[in-house]
């Protein structure tokens, strides 16, 4: 404790001059001590969480959220807060700070606030508008919000970069419009897509050029954002289909790369039968090169393109059978889960007999029955009985005649 205090101080103000709203335990500022607080939050009940909120997170939510270490405890608290009023207070304090949080690359708190509002049904916050204001986007430039979030670049800087790409190089060749992607921006987009917050982002992601689609799908960081968009159950199918209609023309380029192959599989899962036929036909044109590639061969097998070569009708029948098997398996799993929930509910209501009494009954049953049951002896036939016919089997008659 003395070492922590010496390094970080007893208050936020003593740590690198950050302003504070009150005293703060040094353990929250320590890179290892903060793990203790996170574990404490995870195992706390509603009353204990309310106590933590009243003492620390209510008066110090802003400095804690902006702190490079303590912000992780805020993220954990946002995940586990049970009180709707406490969640509403925290979100009301942090939503106006989105620009500052993103400038410090503290994306986890921003995502935590959005998820917390979604979980507690706090619909009074328009996150798309808040993010648009945070990146200084004019109303007629909202299609650039996706690009601003992914690159974590404000609108004015992004426009300057786009204009610079239009100027030719010294040799006279046109410059390529580089679509920058950051890990922090990708994580933010994944969080938004997973809860269905697309709003102003749909136009940006569905309006990507083929060059940008190839770059973003093959980029390790940005590909996870596109994958979250395609796999999220909260994103409407119409938005996914808009994206696939453009991306289908570059699938043969994507399928031979590790990140791109996952995008193609995600597209396949989200597509309807017509779009699946379009994807299959696009991949069939490069059949040999795709099958010779490690990642392409995996996609070829998972999309069942071997059957597609036999004919569209045969392939559609195979897909329907596969779909029915998946649905049957899901029903079985669901029935098992429902049965388990019913059993747990019965135990909670006290309708299940006590374990001790059940064991006692079992013991009584075991005691009442003999431990070892005697086997019945079989009656062994004599030699005389086995040889003589039934008419001559008389007691005392000798077989010698």
Q: What is this structure, in a nutshell?
A:
The protein has 24 helices and no strands. With 401 residues, the chain is mostly helical. α3 (46-66) packs antiparallel against α4 (71-80).
The multimeric state of the shown protein is single chain
What order do the SSEs take from the amino end to the carboxyl end, as H and E?
HHHHHHHHHHHHHHHHHHHHHHHH
User: Helicity, in percent?
Assistant: 55-70%
Q: How many distinct helices?
A: 24
Estimate the strand proportion. under 5%
Query: What is the CA-CA span between the terminal residues?
Result: 111 Å
Radius of gyration: 35 Å
General form = globular
Show unreliable segments: 1-22, 352-360, 392-401
How would a crystallographer describe the biggest sheet? none
What do the pLDDT scores average to?
A: 78
According to DSSP, the number of beta strands is 0
Structural class: mainly alpha
Can you lay out the helices and strands and say which pair or pack?
Elements: H1 2-8, H2 33-43, H3 46-66, H4 71-80, H5 84-94, H6 98-103, H7 107-120, H8 127-134, H9 145-151, H10 155-166, H11 183-194, H12 201-206, H13 210-218, H14 220-231, H15 237-247, H16 251-254, H17 258-270, H18 273-284, H19 287-292, H20 294-302, H21 305-308, H22 312-349, H23 355-368, H24 383-387
Structure notes:
The protein has 401 residues and is mainly alpha-helical. Helices cover 65% and strands 0% of the residues. The protein has 24 helices and no strands. The chain starts with a helix and ends in a 14-residue tail after the last helix.
